[in-house]
Amino acid sequence: MRAHRNVDGGFWVAAVDPLAAEQALTGTIPVDRVRAAAVLSDGASRLVDRFGLVTWRQLLDLLDHDGPAELIRQVREAERSDPNGSRWTRGKIFDDATAIYGRIT
User: Fold this and answer.
1) What angle do CA 71, 105, 46 make, to 5 degrees?
2) Beta-bridge mates of residue 5
3) 97: number of Cβ within 10 Å
4) Of the candidates 103, 85, 105, which has an alpha carbon nearest to the alpha carbon of residue 95?
5) Cβ contact 10:4 at 8 Å
6) pLDDT truncated to tens, each residue of the chain (105 aa)?
7) N or C terminus: which one in the chain shows less Cβ crowding within 10 Å?
8) 3-class DSSP string for the chain
9) Cα(56)–Cα(82) distance, rounded to whole angstroms?
């Protein structure tokens, strides 16, 4: 994994190299269309982007209905179901998982 960290075609980790932030994907949306916002660590987003167990829409619905604690519970359940990383290859069995969600009214 080290050979793919913070290189073109790999993945970017700002904790290793703060210049990785320059690789962030950004965009804009009119503020009147924003109804909620989520901030997720890569450990919390595993349910979608590593495990493929839910879609991004389903993850946002989960956060809206059940909150961050339930998202993290489901991530941990998936991690525990594959302790050897045979179903989902990954660098570490349990990753940090942080999620923040807020509705904008």
Assistant:
1) 20
2) 11
3) 21
4) 85
5) yes
6) 778 788 888 877 777 788 888 888 889 999 999 999 999 998 999 999 999 999 999 999 999 999 999 999 999 999 999 999 999 988 889 999 999 999 998
7) C
8) CHHHECCCCCECCCCCCHHHHHHCCCCCCCHHHCCEEEEECCCCCHHHHCCCCCCHHHHHHHHHHHCHHHHHHHHHHHHHHCCCCCCCCCCCCCCCCCEEEEECC
9) 22
Backbone angles phi and psi of 79, in degrees to 5 = -60, -45
Per the structure block, which two tokens stand in for 94? 């349990």
Contacts of residue 45, Cβ cutoff 8 Å, sequence gap at least 6: 59
Tokens of 51: 């495990």
Helices 68-81 and 56-66: crossing angle, nearest 10°?
120
Residues in the chain, how many? 105
What residue type is assigned to position 32 of the chain? Answer: D
